[in-house]
What we know:
This protein is mainly β. The chain folds into six domains: 24-262, no CATH class; 272-382, Immunoglobulin-like, CATH 2.60.40; 388-464, Immunoglobulin-like; 469-550, Immunoglobulins (Immunoglobulin-like, Sandwich); 560-633, Immunoglobulin-like (Sandwich); 665-752, Immunoglobulin-like. The protein is built from two helices and 56 strands. Strands 1, 3, 4, 6, 9, 10, 11 and 13 form an eight-stranded antiparallel beta sheet that branches. The longest helix has 8 residues, at 31-38. It is elongated and about 185 Å long.
Amino acid sequence: MQLRTFLTSAILVFLGTTIHAQISVDNTLTPADMVNTLIGPGVTVSNISFTGQSVQAGSFDGSMSNIGLQSGIILSSGIINNIIPPNQPTGVGLGGAGDPDLLTIAQSVTSNPAAGSITSTSDAAILEFDFVPVGDSVRFNFVFASEEYQAWINSVYNDAFGFFISGPGFAGPYASPIAFPLGAENLAFVPGTTDPITISTIYPGLNPAYYIDDPAGTTQSFNGFTIPMTIEFQVICGETYHFKFAVADCQDGTLDTGVFLEGGSFSSEAVTISFDGVDNVTGDTALYEGCSIADLIFTRPITDTLDTLIITYTITGTAIEGIDFNFLTNPIIFLPGEDSIVLTLTPTVDGIAESGEYITITAITISPCGDTIVSIGTIWIFDEPGTLVQEFDTTIYCIQDSLQVFAQASNGVGTYLYTWSTSLDTTINNFTTVPTGINGSIDYYVSVIDACGYTSTDTLTVTVDQTLAVDSLSSFWSGQCAPTGIVGAFPSGVTSVLNPTNFYWEDYDNHLNPGSGNFWNDTVWSGIPSGWYYATITDDVCSVTDSIWVESVDLPVAQFTVAVDGSCSPVTATFSNTSPSPYNYHSYEWNFNGTTISATNQDPIVQSFSSTSTVELITFDPAGCPDTISTTINVILCGCTDPTATNYNSLAVEDDGSCFFPNPTVVCPNIFTPNGDNNNDLFFLEVTNAINVEMIIINRWGVQMFNQSGLNISWDGTIGGELAEDGTYFVRYKVSGILGSEPVEGQGFVQLVSNKN
């Protein structure tokens, strides 16, 4: 198996912990420390200064992140520690000053329609220094990142950064120290353009080739960032220049932005030497016999590729060329247009046990200033490694959930792959899961293979000895206006010899008021609100935990119907309590015009009302939470409304049909004298309480003399206009009384005396 690069390392994975590779930072560096981290060969620096707060700058290790740079320094408009997940580079701002040059850059992005509305910057982090190059060009590598991605693209929140240079050959509109009167230029541009690099010039809709979206922020917390990019510019060797790295927030102090600068990349030299693309290797880069090979890379500045360049280098160290590794081409020749040459270094498998051997490559070139520049690269060669596996036998007394067991591989090469007896799959995880439900001992086998293909196997044993368990949990619901909930825990398998079993309840949602406590040490906890409650039961050897939900009873609803028997006083009404009672523990209170009746059931209630009344029902849940509903029972006075009736009631509103009237009376006179003296000239019946009178008069021969009906009828003693003969006449009558009374029928005799003789 052949691998192209790796560093000697041991991978450690700990019990119960899932490792997520992520960036690390250090904000304790001085400005000089930061510049020394940044500066590579061929550059000397002086007049170092930093403007901003110390928390805004420092070093970073990006080897375990997705930022694309191994290490270097970071400048941020916020706190660099917030770059480490799960933190977020956001906040209320640091209250730091901005930078006029960065404001000008932010306003210059013509593709951003909001650029003209940007009026301020804040929380600027600025690193400045003077430098003198030994070559005729300088370069450095960087990554721009921001939490403003992608929600605030093309807005006033266009956080800005810039790389400003001043010195011989440079003049521009940006501020520079008094020793550089021609001003400064900004070097941070989108490749091939004159557009400054911001979230509004590199994003999925514009220059997407340079953008990486990372909204999850698993290895560092910025939402998006650029690919690693290189700034390279020509200088005059031996001259003094001033450089300024700056980044700031625009328009607000939140959603931070940062610039990562690769360590050692700010350099100026004729030729660099690196292994596997890692510039200036001076540490523990390693090869293994029979496993890996390395690329030995010679690089010259891209601005110095017009001519042929011949480089002769020396090989020193404890490893011998042709014995411990292959022969390498020497010298090397850069043809016009070439900026790099790669030689492959392959270790020899000699089967001899020996300690590590190293190779040092030294190249000497002359700078355009005539200075001698020495570039050095070192790599180590080791024998085939033997992977070690350390397993961890486990004895536990309590297992609430599935348990992770693990092994630790070391002394191998690169990434380890693990195969567990619990699965046929190979995985990078050095742990497996012990399922629930086991009790006793069980063996697990793990086989580990490293990046070179070397394999090792081991066995670990898990012993579970558990009897304590939560046998059952119970709960009683809680009211919404008062905490009436109850929880209880009941264990089994308790092992308690010296100490009593401990019950510990926790209010997971922290509903209870501060000071009242959010825990309880007893089997039952009462008077608690709705929510999740965790019970931890501990005996002499074990502790188990379970949880239960205390339900919230709905607020009570008062509801009833009423059936009314008429509306005339007295009114009889039947009240049916229809209040919903899902838990059947409600109580009720009726109020009938001041008369209170309490009830624990919903049986109908019958009441009588003599006047209009208000009826109220209050429904209580078990917590005493009330709900009230009321209605009005309208009652009116009914009676006889006919003034002519004997029982007429002037206060009655509605006639109830109870009127009754007196029977008519009749008096039939027995004589009248129709002689024209206006005294007893007419015969009529004397009636009372009558509405109609029917009267017939006949003589003794049966001849009808008079027949009329009406209320005011009378006979004047004539027939056909002639006065009738004196004598006795027979009278028959029928008198009808007021509605409801009985008619009076009768007969009599009347003597007609005219005195006409």
